[in-house]
Amino acid sequence: MDLSTEDYFQTPPLPVITTALKKQFETYFSSDSLTTMELDSVKATLDLALAPTPIISKVFFDGIQELDSLTIDAKFDSFTKEISGQVIVPAVSYAGSRIDSLRVDLEGDSQDFKFMAGVTELHYQPVLLKKTYLEGSLKNKKLVLDFSSANDTTTVMHVASELVFQSDTVRLHVSPKNLILNKKPWDIPRGQCHTFSELLLPI
Global pTM? Predict the structure, then answer.
């Protein structure tokens, strides 16, 4: 574990960081680009590199059969509204499943938040996926997602979608462009849209 003394003492308490992050994400669900946060400046840094030992594995990763290492690099500044992070796990096995080369990247500012998560291989019987990625962008109450998975040179799945959040309602639109499910192209109506609301769901 690598956490510098300077970073440790400059990082505020967890509740303070949590509150600032909550305010940051609230701006992404607002259509007003001038939304501001009336908070004291909060800066947080996490630089962690963990190589499991038998004791660490037993205490923190009980049940995990294999974990090469875990690297986390994250920074957050509530004044500039900049947030960035990266998580890297070369290989992990748990409960009969295995993931190779997991990587998560995220980056945000006062306008939008972007992220990407990907694996080289995901094996969970009977599912075997290679080169699987999820990319997303959150801005002005709109979450745009792009999911793709390919085995060697064949695209197994590709789904591009858009979620729009309005009050207690969520609208989901799946793009018909390059829509692939189980290696087969799918055709769906271009203007289709699904609406989910607390008022429309049975209690």
Answer: 0.78
Q: Tokens for 141?
A: 């109450």
Q: State the maximum Cα–Cα separation within the chain, in Å, rounded to a whole number.
A: 57
How distant, in Å, are the alpha carbons of 42, 144, 160, 161, 182 from that of 190?
44, 16, 12, 12, 20
- Using CA atoms, how far apart are residues 158 and 132, in angstroms rounded to an integer? 10
Say if residues 46 and 72 touch (Cβ distance below 8 Å).
yes
Locate 27 and state its tokens.
């701006």
DSSP state of 24: H
Helix (H), strand (E) at residue 7: helix 5-10
Planar angle of CA 42, 44, 50, nearest 5 degrees: 165
| pLDDT at site 145 | 96
